[in-house]
Known about the structure:
Elements: H1 2-14, H2 31-45, H3 47-50, H4 61-78, H5 86-90, H6 94-107, H7 124-139, H8 184-192, H9 207-236, H10 240-263, H11 273-288, H12 302-319, H13 328-397, H14 401-488, H15 495-552, H16 556-601, H17 604-631
Helix pairs in contact: 1-6, 2-4, 2-6, 10-11, 15-16
Amino acid sequence: xxxxxxxxxxxxxxxxxxxxxxxxxxxxxxxxxxxxxxxxxxxxxxxxxxxxxxxxxxxxxxxxxxxxxxxxxxxxxxxxxxxxxxxxxxxxxxxxxxxxxxxxxxxxxxxxxxxxxxxxxxxxxxxxxxxxxxxxxxxxxxxxxxxxxxxxxxxxxxxxxxxxxxxxxxxxxxxxxxxxxxxxxxxxxxxxxxxxxxxxxxxxxxxxxxxxxxxxxxxxxxxxxxxxxxxxxxxxxxxxxxxxxxxxxxxxxxxxxxxxxxxxxxxxxxxxxxxxxxxxxxxxxxxxxxxxxxxxxxxxxxxxxxxxxxxxxxxxxxxxxxxxxxxxxxxxxxxxxxxxxxxxxxxxxxxxxxxxxxxxxxxxxxxxxxxxxxxxxxxxxxxxxxxxxxxxxxxxxxxxxxxxxxxxxxxxxxxxxxxxxxxxxxxxxxxxxxxxxxxxxxxxxxxxxxxxxxxxxxxxxxxxxxxxxxxxxxxxxxxxxxxxxxxxxxxxxxxxxxxxxxxxxxxxxxxxxxxxxxxxxxxxxxxxxxxxxxxxxxxxxxxxxxxxxxxxxxxxxxxxxxxxxxxxxxxxxxxxxxxxxxxxxxxxxxxxxxxxxxxxxxxxxxxxxxxxxxxxxxxxxxxxxxxxxxxx
Length: 632
């Protein structure tokens, strides 16, 4: 236990416990030192819980009991599961205190606990410094620029706050698509002409916001792609490139359909339809990458030409207004007349459009009715023509009815025989085809099951790969953290000495194990030999008893020998029982001696004396308090 006690004393000194140089074992800890050590450890583990605990025992006994109970409750709150109470601190014994201190030392946070969740590596020192600076700045209250003093210049910037303004950035890795080779011209442009990221935004204050937004967008896009590929891409049984190209084609078709549906003119927007149709058609042709729509939509209706002619005339009239000096009244009058004429023309055009729309609807309905009647009449005519052909053939066969009937019956029989022959041939071909169909269907179902099983295996492998990757990253971070902690550890302790000591302890344990095994084997052999001798003795006595008993019926001397034999057997049994009782008593004596040594180690006598002294002190305090109460 010397090494354990040295480690505990070293850890307690690091948390601020004042342990003298003469103390080199937990056995030498006093109650005051135990209380101080426990309170220091609890303050490091849970500052809110340990701030209310005193580091020393008060002089009064009742106050000491309260402090002991508070410490016991605090240790239980921290997570200690062993038996603990005020007696652990006031009347301590070595095993309990060692166990408690080992638990508290193990619960102490490491030096790098604050940075355990942060990325580690070569830049760990810089990251810790940045984190500490940010934490210090966040702890300070914010002040308006007009209220800041010169001492706030280091922690708060004197400049005005900037809004979070984002601008698009051009990054080299964004221009290269998946599975595509980058063009040489693009590479030359990025190398020679593309400005750096800090120079692309128009304002320098937007650099950080733009970079953060770009990084967030890339992360969200990668996460969306992973979730979509795991949920839909694997089920499609396509490669990632094929899945992306298929998705792009679907999006293009959907956009074309929406633009085409938006480009169709509706009756409600007949007046403004040509212009919107032309614009959407141009947009559609631009999306397709072909020529503009001026070469496509060259035809127009009568209403479209009328509208164009009307607006052309209106534009000509408007452009032919004389620019000479006229009075404002004449200009307003002319404008009112033109407005009235234009409104009248517009009203006439609207009426014509309504009439034409109604006529078109009526014509469409009439046309649909006529087409339906025409189809029905065509169907009726085709049926009547077929019946006429049958009747005509029947009339042609009537003059020679008997011969024609015989020929017809012969043809019917020949057709029936041919049908039977074809049916037998079909049955011959049908059986192997059905077997082949069943076989192929079974193979297809097996392949579907195999593909679904492999798909589930692929999904599980993807999940395992993702979990393994995360575990590998965590282990890599833990490894880097441990390397950093190893570099920061003091080098005064010799690793070879600890290793040699551990090897010696292991060799001693092996020797002890060998000795214990040897003792157990000897004990087993002795027990086996005792059992053999006992059985042999019982068998010998039984045989001797039987022989002597037979002769004892005839001879008086043999009868006396039989009595002596029985007495000897009984005395031997008593002797063996006495030896066994002696061994049991010796074992109990050894157990009692060990218990006595344990009690001596627990300072039972000293603790009893201290309890008596404390009891006397409490009685004196109670008597003093009673005297004060009487006086009051």
